[in-house]
Predict the structure.
Amino acid sequence: AHTAERCSTFTNPETMNLKTTMLILFSVNICILVSGQDGIITESDTHIFWQPNNKLTQDDFLGKASLDNQQIRLCDSAGVCTMACTGLFAVLDIPKRKSDRRHLFEKAYFAPAFDKINSYSLLRNDSIGVYKQQIVFDLVEVVARMARKELISIQDSIKGIGAVALFFKSVEARANKNLDKFIDTYTFSVFILKEEGAWEKWRTQVDEFLDTTNEYATTPEDCYRFVKNAPLSKKYIMAPLVVDNLYND
């Protein structure tokens, strides 16, 4: 698996690539949720994968808060009483048979994930807290769409098999870098500075982006790739090796 993570306590599945995000600039954990469409499963026992009509609820935060000093400080000083553990899963599949690699394109999958087991809430009813964490989850979808758009653009410009495999890791690295930037900025304005109307402004901006980029949205198939934990077609295998990041940024 090709892994970049920021969570010290999450053990990610063997074939999943995880980029965890964190709220309030402290260490967090990660999980995922899933929904069904046309018989395709997009949810597991532990994780929720992003889908447009699948919104987080208080019941999705199954983590057992330890009530240690750090969690209490976050809740009292920053208002982070509900914590979502989220991340970007990414994997590249290639044709199993070498002879097929001359005419079958490789397949890249990205899916925002919410960790139900490690996400927690110190309150029984924190609807605003859940709402703020939904924005974080949606920000992962923002970078997933940016990554898909970039890979499609690369493939269209090179017009050849192998382009996606060549730039997959580079695009993933850029997506995670953007995710870091978005989460840090969101955290600073909403939880550190506590700017008036900050999270409402972020909600509006994220919604506007999602409304105009539906062609790059995470599909049920993208989610199912990680629920199944295996390629969706028997003709494919997970790429055993990928080209490292080619970007200098």
